Amino acid sequence: MPHQPLTSDKLYRTSQLTKLDVSSTKHLEPLEEIVGQDRARQAVEFAMSIKEKGYNIYAVGQNGLGKRTMVMRYLSRHWQYTHPVYDWCYVANFQDSRIPKVLQMPAGRGLKLKKDLEKMMGRLGKSLQLAFDNEMYYSRADALKNRLTEMQEGALGELSQEAKLQSVSLSITTSGDYQFIALNGEEPHTEETFDALSQKEQEHFDQAIRDLEIQLRGLVRKLTEWEETYAEKQQKLDEEIATEAISHHMVKLIESYSDLPQVKKYLKEMQGDVLENLDIFLQESEEQAALAYAALDKKLPRRYQVNVLVAQEEEVPPVIVEDSPTYHNIFGYVENATYKGTVFTDFSLIRPGSIHRANGGVLLIDAVKVLERPYVWDGLKRALSSRKASLSSLEREVTLSGTISLEPEPIPLDVKIILFGDYHTYKLLQNYDAEFSELFRVTADFEDDMPRNDDSEMKYAMFISSICHDNNLLHCDPGAIGRIIEHSSRQSGDQDKLSLHSADIANLLRESNYQAKVSNANIIRASHVEKALASRDMRVSRLRDHVMEGFTTGTTLIDTKGKAVGQVNALSVLATNDFSFGAPNRITATTSFGDGAVLDIERSVELGGSIHSKGVMILTAYLSSLLGKQAKIPLTTRITFEQSYGGVDGDSASMAEFCAILSAISGIPLRQDLSITGSMNQFGQAQPIGGVNEKIEGFFDVCTIKGPKSSQGVIIPRSNVHNLMLRKDIIHAVEKGKFHIYAIDHVSEAIELFTGIPAGKPDSKGKFKTDTVLHKAAEKLDALRKKSSKA
Questions:
Q1: Distances from the Cα of 33 to the Cαs of 65, 76, 626, in angstroms?
Q2: Whose C-alpha in 9, 109, 128, 174 is 20 to 30 A from the C-alpha of 262?
């Protein structure tokens, strides 16, 4: 029986939209969820409901599946978060400035504390200035000073009087030292007058001065003690005055934070530190004040400020997306400041990373970007394992010297990390990082496609509606919805499935929206979708046009009419990053006397891949099982892809190669108006291949270029029929009988289509019926065997 080509209804599945009862997406309820990703959504829900360590998420799938969109939509609309969120602040450690303290505060109160302290410090500065700039303070301070002066002058006066009785005067040198000098009456002795004295008188003066110096040393010790006592009394007075000024402000502030013991303790410590460093509030010189505010000094006013590292919104858990996961962007850093050539740093220069901002919530990061940045992956694992966010300088990580000398207290970490990545990265992490499975215990596996039925088409229509609503696009009529669904099915490569690459559908809608607006339409119709698809095809099809030009000019040799021995048209797919297309390739086979080997020229010159070579070995095995059971095939066959100058891989040409070889052996010519694609197993059964739509379209285009003929067509495996979503022009040609697509189950059917002769089957003795292709081939081989045996 002649093989019947497929009818046009098998070549394309039209969207029926039987459940759509609205005139456009404007009246269609947008889909809340990401269509078709129930498995991934349930994984995210499960992970987000468990607070224990290690239940972080790796969202795995190709780009464009809407992984981030789905997760963000779930977190914003459905995530029930019951734990409180906190503000995190760094403040000075008054005992050790190198280890700033961290304050954990309810959301919103970190900024309030900062503002309260700033206001209080402003008022406190004025209050202290007034407290130390009034007559009462001056009189009390003067009284202490005068008392000291009186005691010092009295003691020195007594010693001076005693010295005078021994004709010695007590004087003060220009450097401030005390000095005893022998007197000659009322005037000091000169060297001449002193030398003129008798030895006894000189000795008397020396002895007197030595005794007086002993007394002076004792007096100096007393003077020092009195000055220390005075300083203590002065400091006590200052503290007494300052305490009165400070308490008025601090008591109210401490009371307002009495519910936060950690903050209350800090405020009390700060009050004591202010009393110890009063002089910073009483600077008289502007230069000194400027230096005090800029330099790294324990008396800095910034010492009493609050560095609000993270300020959260009340009752709103943070969801942070980190698009540039550098070490500093993730884990924070400490800045350096410069003042008059001096580099310094302190707690107020600590800056947060995204892990701090996401604390108490979720941090979303691209896995590949994390692995590309040095030390980020190790830091992330360390933070998740310890459940602490530690500020460690990158210089320290790479063992280089840095100017940062701070070691801030780590912040307790309660965060969910969601990594987005592809399968390759996921496998690498699983295989080469033992900690990965412990820290990312939940995999959200995103589907590439979903089954196509009436219910899923309706969901897809709602998904299209949500894109239109969210992006403020023109709405789609049912025709446009159906065309987009059909395009999605084509993208999935299956009539019975829909692609879940939401980014591609969103882009198509934006482009269709543009075409509709250019046409001054108020709604997107199927024609606008077609224009958008045609425009996209034109933008990315330069390589295809270049390849087709070779067929137009005759540079690439191909026959689409007539018959030829050992020559067949196979089909292949060429692809760029964003576009794939089909084109025919001529495969030829030649035979010569030999030992039955099938030589793959592509493999011999190292242009054939391992899968292609496997296909050649399989067809060789099938050929041997047909024609070489009784005796060795006395031929060597060579096959090659003509005009192929790059690598060849894949087994989708194995049926074509088998047909070419059998034609070369039997001498029966093959039709050139047919092309074939499909692989085969060792029993000759046709196996499905990829890119079937592109391959058929490629041969159709070449037939159009070389001159259409009503007998032209393509042979495909029957198992590929459900993958057909062909262009409309091909479907119209099939409907008019100007192009044919044949589906086969066995390579013998292809032989019959190519030759118009039955392929033939071996009987129990391995013989073939006459008037079959295999009988003709067997006859020729038997003749060769007889000739070779006679020779």
A1: 13, 12, 56
A2: 128
Residues with a catalytic annotation lie at: 652, 695
**CATH H-level, domain 37-83+317-446: superfamily:** P-loop containing nucleotide triphosphate hydrolases (3.40.50.300)
Dihedral sign computed on CA atoms, order 224, 225, 226, 232: positive
Give residues with Cβ within 8 angstroms of 16, minimum separation 6.
Answer: 454, 457, 482
Q: In the prediction, which pLDDT does 291 show? A: 44
Q: Are strands 86-91 and 101-106 parallel, antiparallel or unpaired?
A: antiparallel
Q: CA-CA distance, 706 to 699, in Å (whole number)? A: 10
Q: Where in the chain is the domain with CATH 3.30.230.10?
A: 558-698+746-789
CATH code 1.10.8.60 region(s) in the chain: 1-30+449-556
Which amino acid appears at position 3 of this protein?
A: H
**Residue 440, pLDDT score:** 94
> Are 645 and 555 contacting, i.e. CB atoms less than 8 angstroms apart?
no
Contacts of 408 (CB under 8 A, 6+ apart): 90, 99, 100, 102, 334, 347, 350, 390, 391
What's the Cα-to-Cα distance from 638 to each of 654, 683, 695, rounded to whole Å?
A: 14, 22, 25
Query: Using CA atoms, how far apart are residues 621 and 175, in angstroms rounded to an integer?
Result: 114
Distance CA 682, CA 622 (A): 5
CB 682 within 8 A of CB 616: no
| Residues β-bridged to residue 89 | 103, 308
Say if residue 195 is exposed, middle or buried (CB neighbours under 10 Å; 0-12, 13-18, 19+). exposed
Domain with CATH 3.40.50.300 in the chain: 37-83+317-446
For residue 269, CA distances in Å to 89, 257, 304, 683 come to 16, 14, 10, 88
| Torsion of Cα atoms, 149 then 153 then 155 then 156, to 10° | 140
pLDDT value of position 298: 39
Token pair 């760094």 is found at 90
The correct CATH number of 558-698+746-789 out of 3.90.650.10, 3.30.230.10, 3.10.20.90, 3.40.50.2300 is 3.30.230.10
The C-alpha torsion from 662 through 665 and 668 to 669, rounded to 10°, is 70
Two structure tokens written together for 449: 């496609």
pLDDT number for residue 602: 62
Specify the residue for token string 């007494």: 240
> In the 3-class helix/strand/coil scheme, how is 774-789 assigned residue by residue?
HHHHHHHHHHHHHHHH
Coil, strand or helix: which one is 460?
helix
Per the CB < 8 A criterion, the answer to whether 242 and 146 are in contact is no
What is residue 577's predicted lDDT score, i.e. its pLDDT?
77
- Helix ranges (DSSP H) in 541-679: 542-553, 601-604, 610-627, 654-666
Neighbour count for residue 444 (Cβ, 10 Å): 25
CA angle 23, 38, 34 (to 5 degrees): 45
Question: b vs e for 308-343, b when ≥16 Cβ sit within 10 Å of the residue's Cβ?
Answer: bbbbbeeeebbbbbbeebbbebbbbbbeeeeeeeee
Q: Which tokens belong to 330?
A: 């993730």
Query: pTM, whole model, 2 decimals?
Result: 0.77
Query: From CA 66, how far away is CA 448, in angstroms rounded?
Result: 10
Rounded distance between C-alpha atoms, residue 258 and residue 618, angstroms: 83
Two structure tokens written together for 238: 């200052």
- Segments of the chain scoring below 50 in pLDDT: 1, 285, 287-288, 291-292, 295-300
The beta-strand segments (E) located in 317-379 are 319-322, 333-334, 337-339, 342-344, 350-351, 362-366
| Protein fold of 1-30+449-556 | Helicase, Ruva Protein; domain 3 (1.10.8)
CA 45 to CA 528: how far, in whole Å?
39
Q: What is the pLDDT at residue 98?
A: 85
